[in-house]
Amino acid sequence: MSISTKGKPPTVLRPRSKTIANGPLRSVGHRNTVSYKRQITPSPPLGHRLVSHEMFHRQINRVIARRHQNCYILDYECYKPTNDRKLSTKFSGEVIRRNKHLGIHEYKFLLKAIVSSGIGEETYAPKMVFEGREASPTLEDGLLEMDEFFIDSIDKLFKRTNISPSEIDVLVVNISMMATLPSLSSRIINFYKMREDVKVYNLTGMGCSASLISINIVQSIFKSQKNVKALLVTSESLSLGWYTGNDRSMILANCLFRSGGCAVILTNKPSLKDKSMFKLKCLVRTHHGAKEESYNCCIQKEDEKGFIGFHLGKNLPKAATRAFVDNLKEIAPKILPLRELLRFAAKLLFRKIHQKWSKSGGGAARPVINFKTGIDHFCLHTGGKAVIDAIAANLSLSEYDVEPARMTLHRFGNTSASSLWYVLAYMEAKKRLKKGDKVFMISFGAGFKCNSCLWEVMRDLEGRNVWEEFIDSYPPKNLANPFLEKYGWIQDEDPDTFYVPDDYEIPD
């Protein structure tokens, strides 16, 4: 198209072609307008689209799977035997006097051990002790002890949670000192008529740390199966493990261990999250069984006269400390805030530099990690007063922090693997546990083992549990053991002339 103007030669206008990444856009001149024909970008190959689609679904499945891998505690029930099973100061003296293998030296040792144990007068013992048959227990005595616990605690737990035994998918039972055929787990299945496809784990010989081992088993199952309910049953059989000899390292167990147990229902079902009490955040297990000293410090064996008992060696504190330190090294980075870890690392580095350049060779005090920066409550194993004192010193805990463990030891004694749940119940009964709080559990057991874990409180807890009836009287003003007042005269007796008549009766 030509356009003429005066004094200027005619000019021809031609549309310019435009290009994009995929090639030119052709232009066609038509009157005073220009039209364009766009080139369509080709779609990605079908294979690429399928791969992207599959990756998207995998990511969604991972998110869904994580929701089912959480481990929640729905509820738990600690066992409180009947009042006729309480070991009073007088009756404890009668049990000791019945053992004809003991002399004045053993009496003095037991008096010292009991007075310093931290155990009170309201702990419980098996029925056969009150019938005077601790020297000749039967298998039925052991089964009766377990049945009383099973029927009482498991029944209460099912009733309170409104969960039927047929809804249980996994059953984990740990009773260290009693192995029967069929197993105790089979006994529970038979009594409650559980499903044929229930997954069963029966643990023995795990000692006082068995509860967290059982939790770890449940946690592993939850990672591979959805919408699962698990029942954990933990206790200890004293009937068949009562020692009647005079070996000091073995008779000590009679002073510390008492009857007890706990049943726990756990789940990974997301819809039950709001009803749950606790959520498992982290769990670490430490086992020093490869070390001979650790392996032999807690062991069941026969004494020189053939009496079977549980030996507690003098090297037990050393073995426990080593396992404890190794366990803390692994779990601390997982549960403490980064700022506390950096603070500790900086102080440790400063101390090393100071020691290197100091002329005197001394240095600053060894830095200590403040576990309270990531933990609100400490649920400690009630292995004895010395055990609680040692943990408190190592973690710089206050009397408020260790009060639940001390009161549990005083009221229920060392109930082996179930003792942690009595400590937790004390915190709940005192209404200490609020939503979002972190609870640190730590336990020790033969092997030698140290296991620990961290729980998150899912809601404010009301405290209706085994402590409910008498929690207002704790802590008592005086924890003094009445044994010293009643039997302190033994310390002044002459070993050469001491004699207890067969008809001697302990005064009230």
UniProtKB/TrEMBL annotation:
It comes from the Eukaryota. It is an enzyme of class 2 (transferase). Gene3D superfamilies: 3.40.47.10. Residues 1-28 are annotated as: Disordered. It comes from Rehmannia glutinosa (Chinese foxglove). Pfam families: ACP_syn_III_C (PF08541), FAE1_CUT1_RppA (PF08392). Keywords: Acyltransferase, Transferase. Its EC number is 2.3.1.-. Pathway: Lipid metabolism; fatty acid biosynthesis. Coiled coil: none annotated. PANTHER family: 3-KETOACYL-COA SYNTHASE. Belongs to the thiolase-like superfamily. Chalcone/stilbene synthases family. Residues 375-456 form the Beta-ketoacyl-[acyl-carrier-protein] synthase III C-terminal domain. Residues 64-352 form the FAE domain. It catalyses: a very-long-chain acyl-CoA + malonyl-CoA + H(+) = a very-long-chain 3-oxoacyl-CoA + CO2 + CoA. This is 3-ketoacyl-CoA synthase.
